Amino acid sequence: MAKQAVSPVERHVEKAVLGVCGLLLLAAIALFLVSSPNKKELGAESATPASVYNVVANEAERLARRIADEPPKPVDEKENPVPILRKWMQNLLSAADLSAVMRPPLPPLPAVPQVGPQGPASDKVELAGLLPPTQVRVAASGRTLAVMEPPFILGGQSYTDTGAGASDFEIAFNWVTVSGVFERAEQERLCREAGYHAGRRDPYVVGVDLQRRERRWDGTYTEWQDIPAYAPITAALPPEVTVIESGGIKTVSEDDQALVSYFADLIRDPQNQLDLMRPLFPVRLAGDYWRLPSYPDIDIVTLDDEYYLLAGVASANRYEALLEEPVEPTGQPDPRQELERDIQRLEDQQKRGFLTLADAQTAEEGVKALLDRTDLSATQNRRLEELLIRTREEVKRLQASPPSQGPAAVQSPRQVVWAHDALRNSVVSGKTYQYRMRLRLYNRYCAFPSPLANPADAQKVVLATDWSDSTEPVTIKLDTEFFLASVSGERVRADVFKWVEGNWVKQTFDVAPGEPIGGIKRIPLPSDQTVRELVDFNTGAIVLQVDLQRTYRPSKTGPDGWSVGSPKPTVAVTYVDAAGEVRERLLDLDRSSTGYGDFKRLAREAAAKSEPIPKTPPTGPPTGIGGPGAPPTGPPGRPPYGPPRGGGGRDGGR
User: Fold this and answer.
1) What is the pLDDT of residue 633?
2) Could you count the other beta carbons within 10 Å of the beta carbon of residue 228?
3) Is residue 399 over pLDDT 60?
4) Which of 3, 167, 350, 601 has the fewest CB atoms within 10 Å of its CB?
């Protein structure tokens, strides 16, 4: 069979294909390894697609500051044609017998004022100093049986998800509330002077920290110790942020940006800010009521209303269910006192100012309704007429104001902050403490390193202020008291009263010199007399001596003042207390004291209870995004972080 002829092309085609592939391989190495085709020259820098946003944002911010700070260029009089044109125009108008002053067709628009002084021009920003709280004090202290739920973590899991009921969280505890004033406007000024962008100057509170020290027997104090404060709603742990370099530009990864954006959305929510700055006290079942901190010229409820207005929800008094209700007089209520309270309430509301037109109109209708009453005194009628005039002026002012969606930021220059030292077994009866506090604030330049002089500062999500000055000492009242009831020989019978489940219960102990007063006994609980549990009635006191031959002179108060009576025989008991101090009590004085009678009455009332203490579920106003009852804002499987639904884009005003 004859051989088939092969053309040169067919003979060498595989060599040509291999050559083309080799050229493509060399081109790929040159383009993608030696150099990059996806870089863009931006000014003096080369940017990749991953870093082009940061380069453009940094350059735009720097250019905006240069434009804002550039002084106007002086005009050379020789090159200025305006005077020549003005003179020529005046000659032309004079020839035409026309006035050079023309009336505008519309009234001039109002001048737009500059909002606050502008910060200094700078290519790089230093983090501003942080102000610690001022006017720090112990606002209230007491002993309470309350419903104390585990805290809800913003963006995380609520205690309601665990299936536990309210009765599982009933706790009897001592507590101290420490409050202070945060100078919000002054902090904003410091941020402005540090060169912060206008959208990054308003501070946001992440939490309030407490420290405590205890007074020793010799009057000195221990070292300061961190105290975990109680709060029903807390911020989650901040995400970890790492600054990286991409194309010569300092930046952070998109995942870090998304986590920080989600964390910032939770913190900046107006209602969440209320819960973080001013945490609510547990719901009381028995014992002492909580008291709202008080500062001159600061109305806390009005401060809260500003945040409710920002959130677009109806204002509410968050603390009404926690405070003690005023004691109503027995019998029928006095209409005159109720009328005076209504007038005073409307006057106080008008002094605080109306946040919305609806509030002012409601107050106007209330004043009109009171003026229609026929039992007004002349003074009350005059006060109401003056109040109606002022309220109508406020209504007219708000009606003339342009429609608005509400303020863009909080306007109050000061904010009251507080924290509760209220966890179980934290505050010990009879101890004397001092407290101090600090704030944790959200870093407005977190995850945004390009404008910072120190890019590593962008890794700090939360910044802490310095510690405040210490409070005045506060002594926690005792939860165990005893009184001498009788004496037989050298044996003393003492009635010991113990605070249990929000009630005072009594047990009697017979002791002799050298023996402690009190002990552990099994008693029925005040909440349920069918349940008997061990209760510690130890007072920490030990009897040293019983003097059966003591005399004393009782004091009396009469029409002529204070006087001392004739000597009377009694029994004196010398003991050493829990603090190691030697003290003495007289039998007659203990038995006749009003405190002894009050404790016995309270113990009888507790023993007479036959039903458990009512279980009151926690109540409160609606909370913000990420809070209890709110729809989830992050995808499942990533609590407490995760970008909001729709993705977590870059937020220049974060």
Assistant:
1) 45
2) 12
3) yes
4) 3
Contact 323, 284 (CB under 8 A): no
Give me the chain's average pLDDT, please.
79
Query: Over 80: is that where the pLDDT of 56 sits?
Result: no
Cβ burial of 573 (10 Å; 0-12, 13-18, 19+) is buried
Other Cβ atoms less than 10 A from the Cβ of 374: the count is 4
Angle (CA) 322-209-166 rounded to 5° is 35
Q: Are residues 597 and 496 in the same domain?
A: yes
pLDDT at 61: 72
Rounded to whole angstroms, the Cα distance separating 492 from 591 reads 13
Tokens of 213: 């020290």
User: Are 475 and 174 a contacting pair, CB within 8 Å?
Assistant: no
pTM higher than 0.85: no
Q: Which of 414, 417, 457, 411 is nearest to 436 (CA)?
A: 417
Enter the tokens of residue 225: 């110790």
Alpha carbons 376 and 382: distance in angstroms, whole number: 9
Query: What is the 3 state secondary structure string of 560-607?
Result: CEEEECCCEEEEEEEEECCCCCEEEEEHHHHHHCHHHHHHHHHHHHHH
| Lookup: tokens for 310 | 């920002």
Mean pLDDT of the region 638-642: 38
Residue at 558 is within a domain? yes
CA dihedral 242, 246, 251, 253 (to 10 degrees): -60
Of 479, 495, 485, 613, give the one whose Cα is nearest residue 536.
479
Structural domain includes residue 364: yes
pLDDT class of 32 with cuts at 50, 70, 90:
low
The answer to whether position 504 is within a domain reads yes
Q: Would you say residue 1 has pLDDT above 80?
A: no
- Return the percent helix, strand and coil in the chain, to nearest 5: 30, 25, 45
Q: Which helix (H) or strand (E) holds 214?
A: strand 205-214
**Which of 360, 385, 405 is the C-terminal boundary of a domain?**
405
Are 363 and 343 within 8 A, CB to CB? no
Is there a contact between 239 and 641 (Cβ–Cβ < 8 Å)? Answer: yes
Q: Is the per-residue pLDDT at 645 higher than 60?
A: no
Span 166-177, mean pLDDT? 79
- Separation CA 535–CA 580 (nearest Å): 24
Range of the domain at 61: 19-69
Q: Please count the structural domains in the chain.
A: 3
58-80 residue pLDDT tens: 777 777 766 766 665 655 555 56
| Residue 422 in domain | no
DSSP β-bridge partners for residue 175:
142
Last residue of a domain, one of 568, 586, 607: 607
Task: Give tens-digit pLDDT for 95-145.
Answer: 555 555 555 555 555 555 544 444 444 568 999 999 999 999 999 999 999
Write down the pLDDT at residue 300.
Answer: 92
650 token code pair: 């870059």
pLDDT at 652: 42
Residues 388 and 490 in one domain: no
**Per-residue H/E/C for 346-404:** HHHHHHHCCCCHHHHHHHHHHHHHHHCCCCCCHHHHHHHHHHHHHHHHHHHHHHHCCCC
The long-range contacts involving 600-609, CB below 8 angstroms and separated by at least 24 positions, are 600/495, 600/506, 602/497, 602/503, 602/504, 603/497, 603/504, 603/505, 603/506, 605/503, 606/503, 606/504, 606/505, 606/526, 607/505, 607/524, 607/526, 607/529, 609/503, 609/526, 609/527, 609/529
